[in-house]
Structures are given as structure tokens and as C-alpha cells.
Design goal:
The chain has 456 residues and is an all-alpha fold. It has one domain. Helices cover 77% and strands 0% of the residues. The chain is built from 18 helices and no strands. The chain has helices at residues 14-45, 47-71, 73-83, 91-103, 105-113, 126-138, 142-154, 160-182, 192-215, 218-223, 234-268, 270-286, 288-306, 313-337, 340-347, 357-386, 391-414, 423-447. It is globular and about 60 Å long. The protein starts with 13 loop residues before the first helix and ends in a 9-residue tail after the last helix.
Length: 456
């Protein structure tokens, strides 16, 4: 490899960790912000539209994150190749995941076509929810394709391009949301949820273009063989699937669980759906820290594993734990001690929901604790993923989710104890799930059974 190439060294020092982690956190914050902007701009259109987008968005995510779970495995292989200084092989796993993303259309298009019958939406969500689901499903291959290209940069710790692309995507999404949700007479009619979906699709396309251009630039074609390594490689594809399929199943089954919970709450009443939607929107926004930390841990630890530097991983884990606690404290202050800014934002909506403020404040307090615990869990999980150990965490994640969250919610619903006033208890169950899962994943980490070098 030419001396002009500048691979990023990743170790357990604070400088290295922050250099990789902060752009990852900013990137995931921007991505989550896109969803939140969609939903709160829809709340300005109508509360029913916001609730419909939460329910339908979760259904769409079952399938998009199923493929993203496999695609993200390329980050681990890129990281291990980068750590082993096999730079000319970095692009090969990316191409396998590009092909998988394109093939995913076979799954998305039929579901999109039958969106009017494939759903669990209550009647008052039906019109807006089906429109939102249908549009996003027709273009469901875009999020996995974006993540396939992003894995090339994430696995090397080169996350600035990710941050820039996401920030541009978010800004584009804000402008397009306003235009397509509320309309721009006489050019664009008011489209509500369908407009929000169109805005998201265009924003995804913009991000894909911004990642594809540097991926195929002359420097990367020369040093990393991003074009010449485009051949189908069955061995690499299987290696990606070995890491990614368990995560894919976790993503799919987890989102099925969330979809069941959301649907049951939605069938209780519009008020219950509103309290839940606001709580889950805030949860999704603040969990950006955990998602960013997870990606940073995978990038750093997979490089360490690639160069057989296992001794540095424990120090890295402890440093990331302090990062999680620091950000957890920052999240706690606005949600527990200063929730009035959220209430003020809700006051500006066209629908009056002041009667729900007590339950909403209770939910925000629980969300602060739940996000902090889940962030710690995702940091520990990232180490296992970097080592290629995904099955144990996948099984534990799902067992805890269904026993601790879904089953009690189902019991509450069918025993008629599930009301809008009991929605905070559901978020308490989510927090308990995160705590139990973290303990079990940490036990696996301490056993040292997770480290597997995957390079073919």
C-alpha cells in the first residue's frame, strides 16, 4: 500500500476513543433526529398522523433492520482487515452487502403492494399509516444500501464522512418534510404521512450519493480496490452472514415485539397511543448515544482483535463505560429536572393533550434511566460483536425482551388493566429489560468466550 494512504490507528487511549466515538455519536444523533423531526412535524399536522407514523414506522423497521443487521456485519470484517493491515481487501465485504441490499427488493416490493392488508393498525390510524408504510416499503432497500457503504468508513474509524452525509440528509429532510407534509400551494398538496415518507426517501438518496462518491473516488479505487473487488465472493458473504444473521434476527424479532406492544397500546385508546408515542420518540432520540457507542466499540475492538491486541479491550470497555455514564447524566437533567420545555413544545400542537401531561412526565423520568442502562448494554454488546460472538447476545436479548416486556403487556391488555395511565409501567418494563440484558451480556464478556477472529 502506498505511503499516501493514511489508515486511522485505534487503541484504548482517550484520544483515540473520542476521535472515533464523537463522530459516531453525532452521526447516530443526526439519524435519530431525522425520525423525530418526521414525527413531531407530523404532530403539527395531527396527533393521529404522528401516532400512525410511529406504528407504521416500526412495522417497516422490522424488515429494513433485518437487512441492516446483516449489512452492518461488514463493519466487523472491514475493522479486522484494517487492523491486520490487509487494506486491499477492505472493499470486498462491502460489495457483498451492496448485492444483498439490492436483492432485498424481492422482499420489500410485495409487502409494499399489499400494505393495505398487511398491518396491525387500529381504525383511526389506517389512512395515514398505510400510506406511510407503503411508500417506505417501496424504497426499503435504500437504508441497507446506505449502511453497506457507510461500513467501509466506519470499520476504519473514518466517520467524518458519515457525520457530514447524515447532517446534510437531516437538513434536506427538514426542508422536504415541511414541503411535503404541509404542502406548498399550488405546487405540492398537503400529503401528511405520505409526504413525510417521500421526504425521508429523498434524504436517504442524498446520503447514499454522498457516501458512494468518496467510496469510488480515485484514491480509494487505487489504495483499497473499491472497484476491482466488486466480484461476488461466497466465502466473504458467508462470513458476513455468520456475524450478521443473528443480529438480523434480533432486529426483526425485537421490532416485532415493539410493534405488538405499540399495537396493543394503540387499540386501547388514542390517549394511550399518544403518551406511548411521545415517550418512545424521546427514547429513540436519546438512544443515539448507545447506538454511536456501539458502532465505535465495534470499530475499535475489531481493529484490536485484527492485530491480536486483546489486552487493550478491558481498558477500552472501562473508558466507554465512563462515556455512557457521562452522557446518561446529561440526558437525565432535561428529562427529569427540566421537562417543561417538552411540555411547552406540546402546547404548540394543534391538538390539546394537556390532560396527559402527568403521564408524559412520568414516562420521561423512566426514559432517562432506561436510556442510560441500555447505552451501557450496547457498549458491552459491541465488544462481543467485534469478536464475532453474536448468537449468545441475540438469544439473551430476545428472551429478556419477550419475557420482561411483551408478555406482561399482553397480560395487561387482555386483563383490561392497560390504560393511558399505565403506559409509564411499560417503560418501566423496558428499563428492567435493559438492566437484565446488560448483566447477562457482561457475564458473557467476562467469560472470554466471545473472541473469534473471522478473517477468511
Amino acid at each position: 500500500m502506498s505511503s499516501k494512504a493514511k489508515p486511522v490507528d485505534m487503541d484504548s487511549s482517550w484520544a483515540s476513543i473520542l476521535r472515533v466515538t464523537m463522530p459516531m455519536i453525532l452521526s447516530t444523533m443526526s439519524t435519530n433526529l431525522m425520525y423525530i423531526i418526521d414525527r413531531f412535524m407530523l404532530a403539527g399536522y395531527s396527533i393521529s398522523a404522528m401516532n400512525a407514523s410511529v406504528a407504521s414506522g416500526t412495522f417497516v423497521s422490522i424488515f429494513t433492520f433485518m437487512f441492516i443487521g446483516i449489512v452492518n456485519s461488514a463493519e466487523t470484517l472491514v475493522g479486522q482487515y484494517n487492523g491486520a493491515k490487509k487494506y486491499t481487501k477492505l472493499a470486498a465485504p462491502i460489495w457483498q452487502m451492496i448485492y444483498l441490499s439490492l436483492l432485498s427488493c424481492v422482499f420489500f416490493l410485495p409487502i409494499a403492494y399489499f400494505s393495505d392488508v398487511i398491518h396491525l393498525l387500529p381504525p383511526y390510524f389506517l389512512e395515514e399509516g398505510v400510506a406511510y408504510q407503503e411508500m417506505l416499503m417501496y424504497f426499503g432497500a435504500l437504508p441497507p444500501l446506505k449502511m453497506a457503504l457507510a461500513a467501509f468508513f466506519i470499520g476504519q474509524g473514518k466517520s467524518k464522512i458519515i457525520v457530514v452525509s447524515v447532517l446534510v440528509g437531516v437538513l434536506a429532510n427538514v426542508v422536504l418534510d415541511y414541503a411535503f407534509i404541509y404542502g406548498v400551494a399550488p405546487i405540492i398538496p398537503r400529503l401528511g404521512c405520505r409526504g413525510a415518507a417521500i421526504a425521508s426517501i429523498i434524504a436517504e438518496l442524498i446520503q447514499i450519493m454522498m457516501l458512494a462518491i468518496p467510496f469510488f473516488n480515485a484514491k480509494n479505487r487505487r489504495h483499497y480496490k473499491t472497484w476491482t473487488n466488486r466480484a461476488w465472493n461466497w466465502t466473504l458473504f458467508k462470513a458476513c452472514c455468520r456475524v450478521g444473521v443473528p443480529i438480523s434476527l434480533v432486529n426483526a424479532v425485537s421490532l416485532i415485539a415493539w410493534y405488538i406492544v405499540q399495537s396493543l397500546v394503540g387499540y386501547v385508546s388514542q390517549e394511550a397511543a399518544t403518551v406511548y408515542s411521545i415517550g418512545i420518540n424521546v427514547y429513540i432520540f436519546f438512544i443515539f448515544v448507545g447506538e454511536g457507542v456501539n458502532k465505535a466499540v465495534i470499530a475499535i475492538c475489531s481493529n484490536m482483535i485484527g492485530r491480536n491486541d486483546l489486552d487493550s479491550i478491558e481498558k477500552t470497555r472501562k473508558n466507554f463505560a465512563w462515556i455512557c455514564i457521562f452522557f446518561g447524566t446529561l440526558i437525565t437533567v432535561p428529562l427529569i429536572f427540566c421537562p417543561n420545555w417538552i411540555m411547552a413544545a406540546l402546547d404548540s400542537l394543534p391538538d390539546n393533550i394537556a390532560s396527559l401531561y402527568k403521564e408524559i412526565k412520568d414516562v420521561l423520568c423512566i426514559v432517562a434511566l432506561g436510556v442510560t442502562i441500555e447505552t451501557l448494554m450496547m457498549a458491552t454488546w459491541g465488544i462481543l460483536l467485534a469478536g464475532g460472538d453474536t448468537r449468545y447476545a441475540a438469544i439473551i436479548h430476545q428472551i429478556c425482551m419477550w419475557i420482561v416486556v411483551v408478555l406482561p403487556t399482553v397480560v395487561l391488555y387482555f386483563s383490561h388493566f392497560l390504560t393511558f395511565a399505565s403506559v409509564p409501567y411499560i417503560f418501566g418494563l423496558i428499563t428492567a429489560w435493559a438492566a437484565i440484558t446488560q448483566l447477562l451480556i457482561y457475564k458473557r464478556y467476562k467469560s472470554m468466550q466471545w473472541c473469534k477472529k473471522l478473517l477468511p
